[in-house]
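Hi there,

I know you've been waiting on this one. I reran it after we fixed the sequence typo, so this is the corrected version. Both the input and the resulting structure follow.
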Amino acid sequence: MKSTARRLTLLAFLVYAVTGGGRIVGSDEVTMLELSRSLLHGRIDVPEGATAIGARGLPVTKNAAGQAVLALPLVAAGEVMAAAAPEARRPLVTRFVASFLNAGLTAVLLGVFYAAARGLGVRVLPALAASLLLGFATPLWVYAKSFMAEPLEALGLLLVLAGSAGDGSKRLWTAALGALLAVSAKLSVTPLAILCALPLVSRPRRAWPVLGGFALALVGHALYDWARFGNPFETGYGMQATPAAYTTPLLVGLYGLLISSGKGVLWFAPSLWLAPAGWRRMVTAGGRARAAAVAGLTATIFALGLYGTFQHWAGDGSFGPRYLVPILPLVFLGVAFAFDQASRRTRVAAVALGLAGVLVQIGGVSIHFGAQMREAGDYPYRLPLSDPRFMSDSHFNPRFSPLADHWRMLVRNLGEHLRGQAPRLGGDGIVDPRIGVGVEDQRRLLHALDYWWLYAGYAGVPRAPLVAAALLLVALAAVAARNLGVAARAEARAP
């Protein structure tokens, strides 16, 4: 099992690496990167942007520090590499290196998911199929290209659930690590992490490592908040951290998160339609599988209630239902059980839903969601986030669904590339410090494909070594896929 999980992790990382964007451009992403850069020099203030004013009168990020701390080695390496680049390109070099953090985290997540599914009793091939669909037929693939904290939250929650439902003291330390990661990444996922630890209710005397993980994360938040605001209970989110931010009618939020044309998770991750049948199998199986099903389902219901009533339920700007990305692995345990001992009809449905999910992600992976939002006229925002009509067409009108728009742009841009009309960055105009390029280049990049080896070519880097690097990663991924198949078959034959 460990050999298969490791080889799955390697394969996933190589695919994520070759399809990575090599860019950090979202407001929260850039601010998180700037926090990591500041931490390298013993500071916590960041350039003004998506920020709040701290106790010393300097701008500080509103985000938690977990992602920035975890990114420190990559950011440090990026700073070293950037020193050898032309001054105007140095910030882009640092961003390039740091942008692959989530590729590694998401790859590890898939390995952990496979081991968790196997540990709960799912056979080898169904567990492997569910793992691959989780990684490449859900928005996790798109978020593996980002610098957002959702993959880290997802990994933490899965570790809590898998460790709490497992046997042995080592599993408890796994759950403790998960609690530390999830809560450090985002304080508001604390209730979800607690619900993922529900299997420990039956053995409270052994839960102290997990409690320690929660406590360490909360102490970290308190110290970080004290350093930022002089108050261990001030998060910087203001009204958004209070009940006043939960003004969306629950039915509207649930419709939006589950089945709306612009954000519905059941369209962005179609394999989830199989989860209810899998949950029934988990409950029927009893034991650890039942405990995991109860915890995962409870956490999922809580998440839907929490984010379904949040004022900014859609998590814009983002691809798909951003706030539900962390619970995808929990729900996909049900998908794995649905695959196990499935009927022929279920297998056919699984293939169809899986292929649909992959097609959805190819659109999101190939066209950055920021470019799609700009071309659709959704960004810059025309209405305040608090307006109930904010991006209502993109959220609820199928005619303006991002799912179709990403593919429309992909077909157009790919055709332009094949005709030799790929964009060329001119480096002209005033550079937007958030994006790292000027206004004219931003317009040109609406015709880009969101892959690092193409971006570098747009900027004037010789194409031959870029294509060679991409092809090398593809070749390595093919070898890794072969080795994964060998390991999986060997595991399936083992007694």
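Quick highlight: Residues 21-86 form one domain.

Best,
R. S.
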